[in-house]
Design goal:
393 residues, mainly alpha, 15 helices, globular, disordered N terminus
Length: 393
Amino acid sequence: MSPGTTPAARRLPAVDALRGFALLGILVVNSTQIMDPYAAEGFREPGAAFVDGFALWLVKAVATAKFYLLFSFLFGYSFTLQAASADRAGANFTARFLRRSLGLLVLGVAHAVLLYTGDILMAYGLLGLVLLWARRISPAAAVRTACWIYGVFGALLTGLGVLALGVPDESGADRARIAAAVAAYRGDAATVVQANLDRFPDALLGIVIMAPGILAAFFVGLAAGRRDLLGHDRTSGGRLLRIAGVGLVVGVPGAVFYASASQGPLDERWQFLGIGVGMLTAPALSVAYACLLLLLLRSPSGDLAVRLLAPAGRMALTNYLAQSVIMTVLATAYGLSLYGRIGTATLMALVCAVFAVQLAFSTLWLRRFRYGPVEWLLRVVTLAGRPGGNPGR
């Protein structure tokens, strides 16, 4: 689901753990966009240290475009849990979901303007309405719809990338934007907000570009939720392993090509084709990651993995926004003004530390409270009233 959690009658450890795992990938990708002006503008940094260039290459290959698909799959899956919860309560699910979507949209706008323009909540608030409209679709039809949406989208991007091979690279003229961005984000609070407002149209364009992938993942999640695939270990370990193997075989070459076109060693003229191939093959790696984590959850270490990841997944909306707060305070004039001053290798070490703190905080919070603070607020909006006994147990 969205980075928020669902008030269902039962918790699904696999869903919560997957969502917690996806939080790490989201933090890895978003932190580079928040802290690195070259990554944010889509340029290679001239003179970057090898270790930093390689670290960013790994981010592109391993994480970029993979984890928002996993999050979107979980949004679709949890949509079915929300519908079941409303049915059990005898409530109007349409009204609930519309209020929830509005809450996500408002949070997303505030997030994009005040913190980070690469927001996903606006997309979920808007595109979730498609799920509401198509909620009675059969699982098989939902999967076919997803394949068509993403297949056409990926093929189109790849085709445009091929055409772009013949277009001269004129990105050098745009590097002045980097200097302007650095000045704005290191300026003061007002210049930070103004820079985000200037980029807001790009955030809306990003929703349009990401919409096919998000919708496709929504529909796959809807189909999986209808079949309760994560509720009762319906898929055998052998099948999960085979699916993960196929996903890696398909996804790894695409990810390597995308990272190489984006960060090198391929020439920059390959960048748009790399984006197309990377997007076309990203779902394969997303599926592989999910299957491998599900296998881990069934292993002797599964209970430990659930204890570590599931609390963060239950508080995913709070943690998602907290990640942006932390990174924005570090990067901009809100705090330390480190924008463009930290190499990617150092940044990834910081990311690990931030995520470790979030894992510990989520566990401690949920020992006392039933919902994360932002989850509780969104639940108030969804139910149009204060939930009983919340935020405490």
